[in-house]
Amino acid sequence: MTRLGRVLPLLAALLMPICAQANPALEAVIADNLEGLERPSRLTVEPLVAQIAATGPEGLALLQAWSERQLGLTEDGRAVIIGDDDAATDAVTGQPVPEADPQMLRPNSGVRGVIESALVAGALNDPDPSRRRAALDSLARGGSFEQLTALRAALDDPDPTLAARKARLERLLTIQVGENSEARVTAIEDLAGDVSLDFRAALNPLLVTRRVVATEEPQGNVAREISIDGDDLPREAAIALLVSEGVLEPRLTSAEQRAALAANLSDGRVGGVPVADLSDPDARDRAYEALEDAGTVPPAATEAEVQAALDAHRVYELYAEPDPAVTEAARAAQIRAQVRLGAMQGIDLGLDALSLASIYFLAAIGLAVTFGVMRVINMAHGEFIMMGAYTGYTVQTLIADRTLSLVVALPLAFAVTFGAGVVLYRLVIRHLAHRPLETLLATFGVSIALQQLAKNIFGTQARPLTAPAWLEGSITINDVISISSIRVAIFVLALLFLGLFLFIMKRTRLGLEVRAVTQNPGMAASMGINPDRIAMMTFGLGSGIAGIAGVAIGLFAQVTSEIGQQYIVQSFMTVVVGGVGNIWGTLAGATLIGGLSKVIESFNPGNTLAAQTFMILFIIIFIQFRPRGIIPQKGRAAEA
Amino acid sequence: MSALLEVSGISKSFDGFKAINNLSFSINAVELRAVIGPNGAGKTTFMDIVTGKTRPDEGEVRFGETGKSLLKMNEAQIAREGVGRKFQRPTVFEDQSVADNLTMALKADRSPFSVLGWRPSSVSVARVAELAAEVGLSDAVDRRAGELSHGQKQWLEIGMLLAQEPRLLLVDEPAAGMTLAEREQTTSLLCRLAESRAVVVVEHDMDFVRRLNCKVTVLHQGSVLAEGSLDHVTRNPDVIDVYLGR
Amino acid sequence: MTRTPFILRTPSTLIVLAVLAVFTITVTLLSAAYGTGAIPTSMVKTLGMTLCLALAAVAMDLVWGYLGILSLGQMAFFALGGYMIGQWLMYARTEGIVAASLSGNPIPFTPQELRDGVTNQIFGVVGSAELPMVWGFAHSLTLQLILVVAVPGLLALVFGWLAFRSRVNGVYLSILTQAMTLALALWLFQNDSGFRGNNGLSGLQNLPGLDHVGQARLSVWFLWASALALGLFYVIAAWLVSGKFGSVTRAIRDDETRVRFLGYPVEGFKLVVFTLAAMITAIAGALYYPQAGIINPAEMMPIASIYLAVWVAIGGRGRLYGAVIGAFVVSLLSTWFTGGRAPSINLPGYVVNWVDWWQVALGLSFVLVTLYAPKGIAGIFDLIGRKGDRA
């Protein structure tokens, strides 16, 4: 199949319905040019093809069949198309022709090139934009010089998008199949610096190399010489290459050697060496050499021979593309693309890190608040995240409209976890005041109970919490930078909560009292603030935010009873690294942890386990230098 | 007579608040000294710096005949050098017996492995009994420290300080929460102790300071305002200003 | 403070040792291999493993109950001990199997062929063709036994030095120990860590060269080994906390700052106890996993260490026998309830299935113990006699 062959079935499908009617113009052209059809020459075929193409869809279908060698001429001068099922149809009327025995036409490649470009030109100039788009899609997968010429002739397009695409495609095709070296180099330089996938894809085939073993510099477009035993070609790989190129006998593997020795075993000896000694590799070599000398086994390449072969040969990388000017331009363009790509990937990484940081921020903020005010770590915090996520899931099963269900779920999740937090505070935490380690353990008890409870209610399998349609998909800036809408939404949510939190802390009575209790509980109490009530409110608030975080996390992760556990350690780390002084500490901690996780991950893609390991190690070291976090609590109280 | 403790030009600020401001202070090997000053004068911070709890921003603290700098040492090292500290609130190990508390404080090698190998000897048992008697806790040797009264805890802590045999003793408001009789007892104990070592008493209570009958250093806003006998400093107009207000 | 022998000053130690001896002998007499067979081999193994867990709990109590560090990473040391002994068990046994299969060939095998065969057997699952560096000592029982205490000890030493030096304490320290455990577990989960990733080490119940003995007898041997280890380290721990050293550690637990002003190098004490506890825990792990038969990184996820803390808290922290009681009661109850043999409770309209509800009950009872019975089960002994010493 030619490349065009792939697009033709599509064109054919588009054309078929119209073919049922007769086409007198086509009939006339065929009648006049039977000779030209049967024995076309490069010189005469062009006007004929143009004539046929001008007759309309039937003409194009005929051309398609012709180029695919599916067109035949009957004795009575009718043109018939033989389909894939061997049934014949009249090319003019589209009627089936039973029992036809046409003489098949076999156009040579020159003629087929002319036909193909006529077809592309036809499709590219088709009044229907969708057909033009289809033709461009097909050309984007690659094309011939004729198609390039046809494309150049059809650059004008009423649709500006398509016109732009055509222009771009023209450049890309020129890189691949341009008329000469200058044209191709110019095309490469025109696009240099572009980071789109299609440009990089156009460059790649130009830079494909193969390794060649030779004794001196080979003919062709040499990319470079590879030094044997260097980083790119370790000695063993070089030997394997020489063996595969046939310039070196394969060395004997130890399994083959053992098999050969076993085959020549006699009287408990092999080649004069007692079998019992053969557990020593040196003894095996001696036995094998003895067999070699006796001529019973074929000689194997010795180390000296291997070395001689390595010394005698050099390894080159040859470009498949013969034109050095083109490969040079392509290499330069690729380097430029890679540099820009690196920068773009950096930006993409930054966006990723930002969204991860937002999640950690949402997950940790509640923890930081309770720790800051009460000096207790709530191990059940992760389960509040889980409760929020399950609340979202439950609401979604009740309200079908996803946007509406989300709007209901967010405040509801806050309410549910706020309530749970208040209950936990009143029943457990209040009674363990000033015993942080006991609180940690008691809340851990709550945590395992809640986890199992969730398993009992919702089952162990993951529950989906589906985002509304407008949150699906992603915002794509170019082929490299893209960010999913959900993550943008979570970022906005995090900002919202930062704002809300700052508002509560700085502008409301509650915030004032919370700050007072954080700084000096005794003094606050003596001024009529009820520290118990403040602690309860902050605990509820922190838990409520965890619930909201749960809905947010549930939107992109599966909701399971362990969903909280996946974020809880990172949340702890965020609090520890950020410091418990204020919300900016949490923000800094989340940014640091989110950013660092992504950066470490980018060094070792696909190995998130290693990334997390290094992350935690980093935090342990970080604590050495800033035991109180990035933004520590200030004042003399903190020194005590 | 050379100085045992030589504090020169130390400053320490917390978030811009200068708790100690270019403070210099020295005390002889055998001396009783009272440090007085209103709230926020920097008394506690001064003790924190000497005992290694807080590091000053600048200045120097030297101790002993060789003038060893204390600034590079941690609390435990400073304590081993012979600086003992009594906190304002009695801090004894409530979960352990009086004898255990005193045994722990006995002067001995403090490193973990020698503590591991340490076994009570007749000498150590006798010394504990002697200390208990000195602070009036002979009957309570086997009681849990947590069961003692507030005053008894104060005494136990003093006993622990004696067991440490410090060369410099820093005492933070010893009179707080004591009955008149206990104050009397404390005064005589402090005076007796000062016969063989340096004792610094940080106190609020002028009445108590008067009983001590020793040299007085007045701190104000982190530096020394006046120094001399109590009568001398109370006549100082600056001191009157600070204490009585204008 | 008279010079009575230490063991007589702490009657609880004597009682624990006696109970332990009676327990071990009873189980032996009821086992399939050496007695009536009333206790099946799997149960003997469970009891042996429980002894190891009790030993880990004793170490946890040293760190938490006596030193005040709520370490949420103890099971990392436990699993590390298991990994270290597991390396030898797996290597030596695989070596035996590979050697047997290679000797079918008329030509005797070379050491390299043996090593390649073993590597292929052990690391085929993770697609590695080379024996990782960390298996360099796996051929030697002596070296791996040294590593059982050396690796966790060194880890505890380095981690502890870093953490204590920067005066991290309280919940911060707990979180940090938890992070350390998580980091270790995640690292081991990777295939290229050299410990077979999430496959872990398996077949550890088979002792190389002892195939003819049979699991029934091996299980009793391990029960004895575990009981001896528990007895030995219980006595060592009790001795440790009974003297001045124990006094200082409890003082550190109650008021670290004050101990500093007494001149004690607090960090040094913490480091000694933390490292020692890590080593004891590792020995417990090294005895546990040959009975369990398999070890994988999931064993050291932070949750396991928190459960250890739960046992100690329920048993009664701050006294060593409390830790032993807690480990026994809670882990055996857990086995029973989650094993599906506990009878369900039929409520009107709902059947309480213990497999599903045990965790809930455990969690809630743990909260109740923390709130209302901070002394745990061992607190009962105070109520009975008020004579219990503090060992």
From TrEMBL, chain B:
One of its GO terms (cellular component) is plasma membrane. InterPro entries: ABC_AA/LPS_Transport, ABC_transporter-like_ATP-bd, ABC_transptr_urea_ATP-bd_UrtD, BCA_ABC_TP_C, P-loop_NTPase. Keywords: ATP-binding, Nucleotide-binding, Transport. It holds the Pfam family ABC_tran. SUPFAM superfamilies: P-loop containing nucleoside triphosphate hydrolases (SSF52540). Residues 5-246 form the ABC transporter domain. GO terms for molecular function: ATP binding; ATP hydrolysis activity. PANTHER family: CONSERVED COMPONENT OF ABC TRANSPORTER FOR NATURAL AMINO ACIDS-RELATED, HIGH-AFFINITY BRANCHED-CHAIN AMINO ACID TRANSPORT ATP-BINDING PROTEIN. This is Urea ABC transporter ATP-binding protein UrtD. The gene is urtD.
From TrEMBL, chain C:
It is a multi-pass membrane protein. One of its GO terms (cellular component) is plasma membrane. It is found in: Cell membrane. Pfam families: BPD_transp_2. The keyword rRNA processing does not apply. CDD domains: TM_PBP1_LivM_like (cd06581). Keywords: Cell membrane, Membrane, Transmembrane, Transmembrane helix. The keyword Hydrolase does not apply. One of its GO terms (molecular function) is branched-chain amino acid transmembrane transporter activity. The chain crosses the membrane at residues 12-34, 46-67, 74-91, 141-164, 171-189, 221-241, 262-288, 294-313, 320-337, 357-381. PANTHER family: HIGH-AFFINITY BRANCHED-CHAIN AMINO ACID TRANSPORT SYSTEM PERMEASE, SLR1201 PROTEIN. This is Urea ABC transporter permease subunit UrtC. It comes from Paracoccus gahaiensis. The gene is urtC.
